[in-house]
Aldehyde dehydrogenase family protein
Amino acid sequence: MGLYEPKLFINGEWVEPDGGQYEILDPATEEVVGLAPEASRAQVYAAAAAARDAFESWSRTAPEERAAILDRAADVIQREFTPYAELARAETGATTATARGMQVAVGAARFRRYAKGALEPVESAVVPQINEAGPMGRAGVFGAVAVRQPVGVVTCITSYNNPWANPAGKVAPALAMGNTVVVKPAPQDPLSVFRMAEALAEAGVPRGVVNVVTGSAPAVGEAAVDSPDVDMVSFTGSTAVGQRIAEVCGRGMKRQLMELGGKGAAVVFDDADVGAAVRGIGTTFSFYSGQICTAPTRVLVHRSVHDRLVEQLAAYIGHLKVGDPAEAGTVVGPVISAAHRERVESYVELGRKEGARVVAGGERPPLERGFYVAPTLLADCTNDMRVVREEIFGPVVAVVPFDDEEEAVALANDSDYGLLDYVWSGDVARAFRVARRLRAGGVGVNTIGRNMEAPFGGFKRSGVGRDVGSYALHAYSELQSIVWPGGS
């Protein structure tokens, strides 16, 4: 695979970047995969202006036309599936299976889903109201309808852990609703998003409807947020960055959709299927090498089964092959960068200093190249430790014991985060009772699986708003009320 050197995509054209290019490294080999364009602030503003100019006509296109374009984009992605997956694997360090099944395939599926979404009704009836005569006019029966309208220009700022599913989950529903977009991918792995732009261009998306700008400097993202042409910002990433974006959006009264950090609590009761819980929690060690905000990284386990669960989790780690994500059988690939590897390793060392016991992992894998972190299990933890409270975003799990249901709920909710929590119990009634008490946007009961039509988002510092399924169409729309007199 040769170097991929895309230009910026602004107003339907591939534009030379003002700031030159910067290197994108393969986290597994540390070799250059491609060169990403470095946009200037003026070019980001130009992209937003192009989206503004395109909004009027795009928002008035027939839903069937928007659906057809999204469907054709999915066709192109499926046609180019293999090279797209190879690029995604190379720039993210994901295993081949993950790049194919969870990145490119999910990206295509989301374009298919929102092709159908473009055809969903946008009007809903409101119960008629009988008004007495008064200062507002004569007596009468007033009908009303609530209509979902597109927000306008949406800036989509995406995370590095999935450069297909995450941008597609923003761009596709935004376009389906009649919005135009400026996409600003994560600086670590933006190349796949340019492939997505190519697919949309081939599918016939009009000029200015989709724009892609990139840069390694914070100024690029800042411009994509503060441009006066932007009406809404959809962001996936860290809570700290999300807070800064929200401050700017607040000054401009811009709509926000924020999917931020997570520190998922996995509550394991004494009557749980411990093996099933271990398999679910164990995905933290392998899936995206723990670089996923929904991971069950904070394990709260009943003291009576604590030792058994820790022993089985340690054994689970022992069966995971760490290494080249392109090789068959590899389960754990690298993390995204050398800087992030150092961050994860610093948390493991911090855990040691805080008194946690390193049951497995804790040492850098003996590989010559690549940003690898050993899957690590920390036991003897307490809820006040930083390794328990802060998002590490790597293959690290911390285990905290509890004695009863009340303590389990209190520990789970004693967190700044509230994205996805999990409950394992053989008593389904108890599992659902506890789930209802957890302050999290979603709760998995005896599973880490997701229903991809269910609303997704977080409580507390884990975000603002909900997307996925039809909820994403709602997220990228404003509600308008139309009222009329029905008689007197």
Observations:
- The longest strand covers residues 140-150.
- The mean pLDDT is 96.
- Residues 8-260+462-482 form a domain with the Aldehyde Dehydrogenase; Chain A, domain 1 fold (CATH 3.40.605.10).
